């Protein structure tokens, strides 16, 4: 499959999947990370950590903003806001987070091969997160920085059978 720009991808999604089209968001207020009312503060790092350690790590989004912003305008706006909760962030080395070779590349692969594969009714379920390894992970104060991340993608094939892919990407 040839590489496409994100605008070409969004255009194709809007053309081929009208019920799942990306919705123009009414608000851009959620660009700053925030706490989630559904997750206890003890389960995530807040901006204090990311500001203090910004030289070494990014506030990496596990689910990127553009992926869940489809549906009705209200659904898209809530999904967009949810991606900016600290509970969707993990410290990631800036090269890992910003490189198309690593996490960003895997995100793009899922979008291009999941949504844009000519199976217009395909619904993907994506689960991702950090993998901790006490032997090679780095530490920032008392916070363990994951050296790897996993992503699992499952869907129903055109024949109606279960299908899936999984990946493990090392940050080091």
TrEMBL record:
Binding-site list for Mg(2+): 97
Catalytic residues, chain numbering: 61 (proton acceptor)
DNA/RNA non-specific endonuclease/pyrophosphatase/phosphodiesterase domain mapped to chain residues: 17-172
One GO MF term attached to the UniProt entry: hydrolase activity
Name of protein: Endonuclease G
Domain ENPP1-3/EXOG-like endonuclease/phosphodiesterase per the UniProt entry, residue ranges: 10-171
Keyword Transport: no
Domain of life: Bacteria
Pfam families: Endonuclease_NS
InterPro entries in the cross-refs: DNA/RNA_non-sp_Endonuclease_sf, Endo_G_ENPP1-like_dom, ENPP1-3/EXOG-like_nuc-like, His-Me_finger_sf, Non-specific_endonuclease
Keyword Hydrolase annotated: yes
Keywords, ordered alphabetically: Endonuclease, Hydrolase, Metal-binding, Nuclease
Family annotation (PANTHER family): ENDONUCLEASE G, MITOCHONDRIAL, ENDONUCLEASE RELATED
